[in-house]
Amino acid sequence: MRKIAVIDKGICVACGVCVKACPRGAVAVYHGCYAVADGAACVGCGLCGKACPTGCITILERGDAK
Ligand code: SF4
Ligand code: SF4
Question: 66 lies in a domain?
Answer without folding.
Answer: no
